[in-house]
Specification:
The protein has an eight-stranded antiparallel beta sheet with strand order 1-2-8-7-6-5-4-3. It starts with 8 loop residues before the first strand and ends in a 13-residue tail after the last helix. The chain is of the alpha+beta class. It has four helices and eight strands; from the N terminus they run E-E-H-H-E-E-E-E-E-E-H-H. The chain is globular. 25% of the residues lie in helices and 41% in strands.
Length: 170
């Protein structure tokens, strides 16, 4: 019996403006870390189907920053942030959608080794207000998360993501 998640569980905390996302992958923590930090891999899976992602800048190291544009049907959406901590088991970063430049979220991603080549991703986004958090939830983010992670599953299944990360202990 497969008791792992193939779609993300997305929960809103009733007391704090946090969104929590939990998702299992047939991958090692090192593979998931690489998928979230390697710019060539990141643009191949992030976001909903039909969206093209182009990086403006990408420095996935502690103190680094990032910016990307996501485009579909002639519309373009900009996102940017800073990496506060980048290590093989955890990434802490800010996230801002440029359509709401005052809405900055603090995101933490944890890669939990489940054994047997499986990893649970636990992510949380602390938004600056309940209104901002609820707007994210209404935006269709669940579709983007599920479709993006399905693309990541396909990359992993095709053997496109190596099991080790240079400079990181896997």
């Amino acid at each position: 019996m497969n008791d792992t998640m193939t779609t993300a569980t997305i929960e809103a905390d009733p007391k704090v403006p946090i969104i929590r996302v939990t998702r299992d992958f047939a991958a090692t923590p090192a593979q998931l870390f690489r998928a979230h930090t390697d710019p060539e891999l990141f643009v191949r899976w992030v976001g909903p189907d039909g969206m093209t992602t182009t990086l403006d800048r990408w420095d996935a190291s502690t103190g680094g920053s990032w910016r990307y544009l996501a485009a579909r049907n002639g519309m373009e959406f900009g996102f940017h942030g800073c990496f506060h901590e980048v290590r093989p088991d955890r990434i802490v970063q800010t996230f801002t959608w440029e359509g709401d430049p005052d809405g900055v979220a603090l995101e933490t991603l944890l890669f939990e080794d489940l054994g047997d080549g499986r990893t649970r991703l636990r992510a949380q986004s602390l938004c600056d207000s309940f209104e901002g958090r609820d707007a994210w939830l209404r935006s269709g983010m669940e579709v983007g998360v599920d479709q993006g992670y399905a693309k990541l599953d396909a990359l992993l299944a095709a053997g496109r993501i190596a099991g080790t990360v240079e400079g990181a202990e896997a």
